[in-house]
Design the sequence.
């Protein structure tokens, strides 16, 4: 069975600083990888996804993520954080060949300070 | 506007009183699912449905029921709620036309409190 680890439960960054949220997955085959964002009181919204091809994927709101097979990682990055980025971020892994078996990490809550 | 609509947004109930949380999507998606979100545990899948009249258990199905009589609706039923079902619930949908593991579209959540 697949699993996802987000080692940082809570991260605080200053507005304008760079951001990296860590995600490690465990799965025997090629995974489908996602990052979702949850703003307060809202459902989850897809930021970006990786299925195959270029290992650096671009998403919405200026986010990007890099798939590193050797490290089983899919870290999310943003060069300059805005106050509106304060939210909870979830990494998720899907099983290739299996329909919609998606496992989520426990989430990383991002706080942005002025 | 394409969306997944859950109702109610907030619900407080007492132990043992049956309740239903509704979920409806207007995107003609075949796949729908229910998750619960708890602090420190992330999102865990309760039930999912691949299409009308096709449902299956997720990771934490105990104490829940679902039905899929129409493509657009996927209600979550708690026949006898207990305090350990106090949680934030999300309905999600997607379409296999986007391939396996198409991104999920989420509702805004239902915060349930069972006293």
Sequence:
């Amino acid at each position: 069975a697949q699993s996802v680890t987000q080692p940082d439960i809570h991260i605080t960054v200053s507005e304008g600083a760079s951001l990296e949220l860590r995600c490690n997955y465990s799965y025997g085959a090629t995974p489908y990888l996602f990052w979702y964002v949850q703003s307060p009181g809202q459902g989850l919204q897809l930021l970006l996804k990786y299925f195959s091809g270029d290992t650096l994927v671009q998403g919405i709101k200026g986010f990007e993520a890099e798939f590193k097979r050797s490290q089983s990682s899919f870290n999310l990055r943003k060069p300059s954080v805005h106050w509106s980025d304060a939210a909870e971020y979830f990494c998720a892994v899907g099983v290739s060949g299996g329909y919609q078996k998606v496992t989520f990490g426990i989430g990383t809550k991002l706080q942005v300070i002025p | 506007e394409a969306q997944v609509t859950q109702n109610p947004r907030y619900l407080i109930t007492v132990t043992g009183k049956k309740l239903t949380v509704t979920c409806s999507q207007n995107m003609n998606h075949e796949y729908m699912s229910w998750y619960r979100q708890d602090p420190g545990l992330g999102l865990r899948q309760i039930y999912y449905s691949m299409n009308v009249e096709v449902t299956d258990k997720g990771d934490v199905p105990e104490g829940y029921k679902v039905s899929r009589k129409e493509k657009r609706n996927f209600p979550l039923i708690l026949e006898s709620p207990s305090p350990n079902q106090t949680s934030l619930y999300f309905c999600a949908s997607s379409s296999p036309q986007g391939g396996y593991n198409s991104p999920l579209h989420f509702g805004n959540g239902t915060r349930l409190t069972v006293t």
